[in-house]
Q: What sequence folds into this?
């Protein structure tokens, strides 16, 4: 794990120390309009090293993670006199760390960049692991690079003003990390209430959860094998997300992953003997925290069609990451449509739909 | 050296074998309008595996190595159904291998690509070593990535229709590789006449020359140290190139490098004791092959100003790669302006200007 990840309640001190140690002569901060208003002023007031930094602000929202915004960032770096020794700080959610990471990976063939995630979802997911990129022609993350941030500074102080829905969305990815890591990590997550304002405890379990991802990414940075473990809950989760979008009632990414995990653990029960009492406990936690996702058996063909579109699929079969038990991963599982339909039936029962 | 480089008189057989071995389900060929007319039909007629390949043609010329052409390539890959398992073949000069390499490095965060250089300059320089990129806002290679082609197929059969000026331009980079490698390689290059049509001998010495670059790149892929040896002749060469451009009489890149090598070997004599008889022998070869580059001492301030702009400079001093002798490299040499002016004086003497 060559990438430095700092977990801290004092992010301004951490970034100041990083800049001093790196000896970087010039610093740029990439942020979006929301973060520029709500988070940036706090960091700027607490930091000594960021006073002369040049701020690059782009419009918020995944729809702006595109080639126009990327060109704007390259332009600002160029006009700001950025050299190969300059530093780019990506301060924002996943949209900012994805796009800023790609800008940093490619400007002059690569300058150092640091991610400072301001949402729980980006802290646990996008900011760590080296996947950078932009959307292109309406396809998500179609263009990008594998390039790890030189450092990541993770702090729960940024999350205090987040809507609870955002916190829950990020927490779903943490739960997924617990499921693939093992019972100890998983139990601590299931016993924490994300709606409480216990930021110190959240920082501790966040560190544990991020380190699960880091261990897997170190083993397989380019996603040829075990990194696909991180795909748990996502094949069906993405299908739920697209289904909701098509029916004009979009759901947060993390909610889709939470429901996707329940359905894929059901599949794991059916095909790999995942313990059914563990499935029921997990489903209850998800139902209590996220409520149900509602659909009928008339939606099954559409959902299965959407699963076929997942970009991890290389053939006509649908590829899943499943579990034999908590922490016991099986990548590259293929399931037939009958099993998937049974899992969707059981999911609806578990969600009291 | 993990990158496969094939030196062959039968490039169609080499690419067919590569495609069969790689098992890639879909192939795209990137080329420019000139290459599409003069080289592509020959390859297509001789290859079995390229019959169903999708051809992406962009406008020729370095001015088109830009974000618009890059977006067009991403677009064509997307619309052509390219997946992570697809293969992109870059068939052309340095403009095509640079831009196609960057497209390949970034489409879906990286697909396999193969370079088939059709000019001597791109064979010996751009196609090997992993520097990919595009120009941006008028600055050369401002945006890009370090990513080696999965394979490079080098064949002198492509060069038979090149103008002799193009051949000589590429040969200058080969001479540079000889100078930094050692006396054996260097002697063989100095004893070859690039204006002869001895394609088999050219393929042999080209292989030797390309392998010099590969050894250096393997040692220092990201140009933190010894890779700067490849910069020999380029600090002053780039200044000559920009100077000629500004005065509306552009010179080929390789010619600028050849003259830059003479001047930097002169500097090497002055500051590191490079043998003066070796300098004179080299200068005679360059004069006989490339003729002189003409300027007066009134141009010195402008030339020195241009040397300051070289992107390898990190401070106000001018950074050179010099030689103590053929094959004895000293990177990160700084010279004062008096030495540079003396070297320019001696260069003009050696070129009978």
A:
């Amino acid at each position: 794990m060559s990438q430095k990840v700092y977990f801290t309640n004092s992010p301004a001190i951490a970034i100041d120390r990083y800049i001093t140690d790196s000896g970087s002569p010039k610093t740029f901060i990439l942020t979006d309009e929301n973060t520029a208003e709500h988070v940036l002023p706090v960091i700027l007031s607490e930091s000594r090293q960021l006073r002369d930094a040049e701020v690059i602000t782009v419009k918020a929202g995944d729809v702006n993670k595109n080639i126009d915004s990327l060109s704007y960032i390259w332009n600002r770096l160029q006009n700001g006199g950025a050299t190969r020794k300059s530093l780019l700080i990506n301060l924002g959610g996943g949209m900012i760390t994805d796009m800023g990471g790609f800008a940093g990976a490619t400007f002059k063939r690569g300058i150092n960049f640091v991610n400072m995630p301001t949402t729980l979802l980006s802290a646990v997911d996008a900011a760590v692991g080296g996947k950078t990129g932009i959307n292109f022609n309406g396809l998500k993350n179609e263009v990008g690079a594998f390039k790890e941030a030189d450092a990541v500074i993770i702090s729960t102080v940024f999350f205090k003003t987040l809507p609870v829905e955002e916190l829950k969305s990020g927490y779903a990815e943490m739960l997924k990390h617990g499921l693939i890591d093992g019972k100890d990590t998983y139990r601590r997550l299931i016993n924490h209430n994300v709606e409480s304002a216990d930021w110190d405890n959240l920082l501790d379990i966040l560190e544990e959860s991020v380190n699960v991802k880091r261990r897997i990414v170190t083993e397989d940075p380019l996603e040829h094998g075990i990194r696909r473990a991180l795909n748990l809950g996502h094949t069906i989760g993405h299908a739920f997300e697209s289904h909701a979008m098509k029916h004009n009632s979009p759901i947060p990414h993390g909610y889709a992953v939470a429901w996707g995990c329940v359905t894929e653990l059901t599949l794991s029960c059916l095909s790999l003997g995942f313990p059914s009492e563990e499935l029921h406990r997990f489903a209850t936690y998800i139902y209590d925290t996220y409520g149900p996702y509602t659909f009928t058996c008339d939606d099954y063909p559409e959902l299965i069609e959407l699963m076929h579109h997942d970009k991890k699929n290389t053939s006509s079969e649908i590829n899943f990451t499943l579990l034999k038990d908590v922490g016991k991963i099986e990548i590259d599982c293929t399931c037939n449509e009958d099993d998937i339909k049974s899992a969707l039936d059981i999911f609806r029962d578990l969600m009291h739909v």
